[in-house]
Amino acid sequence: MSWFTITIALLAALTMSSVGLAEEQPQCRWVPTKDLTVEGQGWTDTEAPFDRLPARAKGLVPDAVWHLSRHSAGIAVRFVTDASRVSCRWKLQSASLAMNHMPATGVSGVDLYVRLPAGQEVLLGQCWRWVGIGRPEAQANEKQLVSGLPAGEHEFLLYLPLYNGVESVEVGVPPEAKLSPGPARPASEAKPVLFYGTSITQGGCASRPGMAYPALVGRMLDRPTINLGFSGNGRMDAPGVDLLAELDVAAYVIDCCPNMSGELVAERTEPLVRKLRDAHPDTPLVLMENIEYQAAAVLPGTLRSYTSKNVALRAAYDRLVAGGVTGLHYVEGKPLFGDDGEATVDGTHATDLGFMRQAEKLVPALKAVLDGAG
What we know:
Layout lengths: L2 H19 L7 E4 L4 E3 L23 H7 L6 E6 L4 E7 L11 H4 L2 E6 L4 H5 L3 E7 L5 E7 L7 E6 L6 E8 L5 E3 L11 E5 L1 H4 L10 H9 L3 E5 L8 H7 L6 E5 L6 H18 L5 E4 L11 H23 L5 E4 L20 H19 L4
Parallel strand pairs: 11-12, 11-13, 13-14, 14-15
Antiparallel strand pairs: 1-9, 2-3, 3-8, 3-10, 4-7, 4-9, 5-6, 5-8
Helix pairs in contact: 6-10, 7-8, 8-9
């Protein structure tokens, strides 16, 4: 037998073996997310089902903002099921699944949490627990996220991709299982907290969607959030601010400094605050300083690059308060990532560690604001 014949035979055997070993996807009943509870969208009049801005924003906001608004960052699906396993089928807008500093699981994956039984949340500090990730391999994906769930009904929270758009999303359960929308939230926790900002706000560079800091804050507070982070483009542009003013939210968190110069911060902060305050006289407004760039401890130029923005933001805040603007709150940037320089991928964009630290600093301040004590 020739070498060529032996090689072909070996390849054929390996192929047959691979086919035989391939895991067969269990049978599912697929339910589109429109039949479940979708959170994290401020508008329903969108061009596509999982856009973050209304269709009429096209041509009004900068083109880059419109493009980024097609990403599903912060959008989540709540549902209740007695299924022993949960799957997801999702189709992405872009075939680009990852970035050179952010994994595909964060850029294009889905992320599943389950609500813990009453009493257990006290031990863990929050009521949601991670149970599964959907790893993307192509534009169209079908993945089992979790199996072996205990008997009984459980409430789930499914986060959609941070840096990719989604054309369709379906939740899959065994054919005999029940699947229904998530329950209505208590009236006191129904309004979302809105985050407006930059790539850090959008979720760069979380390893999975549930680790972006707005999502972490939402789970810690157990209330919905709206993520209007636009990578490189959180600049307090007037058309975008007009859109923010349309929404009735529990609080606005403004985190735009990393995309702005000190001069731009000085120019645009007060008009933004006055626009939102005119539209919503009683809604709390939180201004966040620029995070501390991690190399600033040794590089004077890096230190100057963000401190000038924070000086401008503090000056604008002081003027607004002196001018009688109420319900305005301020968060300093230096403590957000910790003081060891280990919280980012590249000195600016957070790892999961950085986002967890940021959320843990923000939650007490936001809780005080939402409770009326801040």
